[in-house]
Amino acid sequence: MKKIFLTLLLSFAILSCETPTQTNSEFPSVVDSSQYEEIANAFNDALNSQDVDLAMSYFSDDAVWSFPNGVQVEGKEAISSLMQTTSSIWTSIENSDDTNYLALEGTNEAGEDFKVLLSWGASTYSNDMNSITIPYHNVIFFNDDNKMSFQGGYYDRTKFVESYDEDPIK
Q1: DSSP label at 145?
Q2: Which residues lie across from 125 on neighbouring strands?
Q3: Could you tell me where the beta strands, DSSP code E, fall in the chain?
Q4: CA distance 80 to 137
Q5: Model confidence over 139-152: pLDDT tens digits?
C-alpha cells in the first residue's frame, strides 16, 4: 500500500512540474537563436574580410558598444571608426566551435519589447605577428528591424592591451 501511495505521490509531483503555457509572463521567453546567430556571424565574417561598411550595416544608427573597461562607443559612425582601427590590427577573429548561444525575447518594465542574443565561449584574435585567445561573454540587443542596437562584451582585456602599441579602446 505504501508503494501505491508513493507511486501516486511521485506521479503527481512529476505532473505538477510541467510548465504551463503562459502568455502574460513577466519573464522573457527562450527562443530559437539561429536568426540572431546568423546576424552576429555575418557581422564577424564582414570584419574578417576587412569590409567594415558591410559590418556596419548590421548596426542601428544609434547603436552602442560597451567594453569591459567601461568605455562605451555610441553611434554607428563612432563604432565604424573603432572597427576601422581594430580591423587593421586584427585580421582574423574566430569564435570557437563550442560557442554557446541563448536567445531571449520579452517585454521590459517600460513595456518595450526586446530581443537579445547571449553568447559565451572563446575567441581567437590573430594578425601576422600575434594570436591571442580569450574567453568571453557577449550580449547583443536587436531592434525591431533586427539591427544590432547594443553590444556588450565581457572579457579580460589584459592580453589585448599587451598586444597594442596604443590601446584603441580608451
Answers
A1: T
A2: 93, 132
A3: 29-31, 59-66, 72-74, 92-95, 100-107, 113-126, 131-142, 148-155
A4: 22
A5: 999 999 999 999 99
Cα 103 from Cα 79, distance rounded (Å): 24
Q: How many Å apart are CA 102 and CA 34, to the nearest integer? A: 9
Q: How many residues does the chain have?
A: 170
> Which residue bears the cell 501516486?
8
Name the amino acid, one letter, at 138.
N
pLDDT digits (tens, 9 = 90+) for 157-170: 887 777 777 777 77
CA angle 113, 119, 120 (to 5 degrees): 150
Q: Give the per-residue pLDDT at 8.
A: 39
C-alpha cell, 131: 594570436
H-helix or E-strand spanning residue 6: helix 2-16
The pTM of this model reads: 0.79
Q: Which domains does the chain have, with CATH numbers?
A: 31-163 (3.10.450.50)
